[in-house]
Amino acid sequence: FFLIAAISFQISGCAGNRNLAPGSIKEINEDNLAVSTRATGSAIQSEMVTVQPFVEASPSADYIVGPHDVLSINVSGKPEFSSMASAPGGGSGAGNVASATGCRVDGSGNIQLPYIGTVHVWGMTLPEIQERLIVIYSKYLNDPWVIVDIKEYRSQPIYLLGQFRNSGIFYMDRPLNLLEGIALGNVYDPMADLSAARLIRANRTIPVDIYELLTNGDQRQNIWLKPGDTLYIPDNRNRQVFVFGAVQKPGPIQLYSTGLTLIQAIASAQLRDSGYDLSHVRIIRSHSPTRGELIIVDVDKIMQGEAISMTLKHGDIIYVPKSAMGNWNDAIKEMLPTLQAISAILSPFVQIKYLAD
Q1: What is the arithmetic mean of pLDDT over 13-39?
Q2: Of 136, 214, 234, 266, which residue is most buried, by most CB within 10 angstroms?
Q3: Among the ranges 29-43, 61-75, 315-329, which has the highest mean pLDDT value?
């Protein structure tokens, strides 16, 4: 009773419009709860939203050479033409042995070789580089043979961040899919929030459901990785919801293990003294990176005791409109500037569906 009274006190300006006097007790019968099969009672509209699955062509099976890779090139066993150097073997002359040191691909995609100088190799496979060098060395040697190999893979990084057992930068030595990339991090630790795990490419969150891939084996989510991709798995201990709109303290609110209701969240954010519409409070709920739900809640009905308050979930975005608004497109348009300002901490579904552009 004390908690209910405290919440009613924080939502200032509401009591004057209520049909029930403070302290009144009203029974909630089955008719009051029949609005929603999830026993929210106050939800007057709910719409499931999905994101189109991500589809791309399979990459080439051959490794594509790029800047910072280190190549080993052996030309007919002749060190003077190859990426070879004389390594000390305990003396001079015959005591020196030839060892491959390799040549690094520079930022322009070139390598430097004895006698022939600059050779552009960026974007080429090893057989293509070998074929090009055979043509070049034919000017100096009769029927030369060339062996090209990679000593160090450094041009195709992927970044594993968050709750991996081994996080950091890893370099692809062949085309890798999402599962193989996750395996590089020695999987994930017990504090991982897989439902909010995401793949970021070129500063955009890609619509793949890592949770479905890892827990239910949905191979449709096992897409190919690209150089520069970031895999991020957040910590499941940092759980929060967001309240915006006609409130005095907009922003995140901690979601504790004991739970949080919609009324409690609005009370924490503190309604304005006037200028709000509690009969059409909007909630964007993320179920996964590719599935979400748009919910309209009649908080007035809750305040009048005609429905039970809705229990919130991690990542819920609550928007209290300043006045009655139209459809969800109008609501999203009004919410968009706020969502963009905090996009980095929102769920991947919101980033993909509403912030991608």
Answers
A1: 41
A2: 266
A3: 61-75
DSSP state of 352: H
Q: Quick one: tokens of 74?
A: 């052996």
207-230 pLDDT, tens per residue?
A: 999 999 999 999 999 999 999 999
User: Structure tokens of 213?
Assistant: 């891939």
- Looking at the DSSP bridge assignments, the partners of residue 158 are 170
CB burial class (10 A; 0-12, 13-18, 19+) of residue 57? Answer: exposed
160 vs 29: CA distance, rounded Å: 51
Q: What is the pTM of this model?
A: 0.78
Residue 113 to residue 192: CA distance in whole angstroms: 48
Angstrom distance (rounded) from CA 303 to CA 300 = 5
- What DSSP string describes 102-166? -EE--TTSEEEETTTEEEE-TT--HHHHHHHHHHHHTTTSSS--EEEEEEE--SSEEEEEESBSS
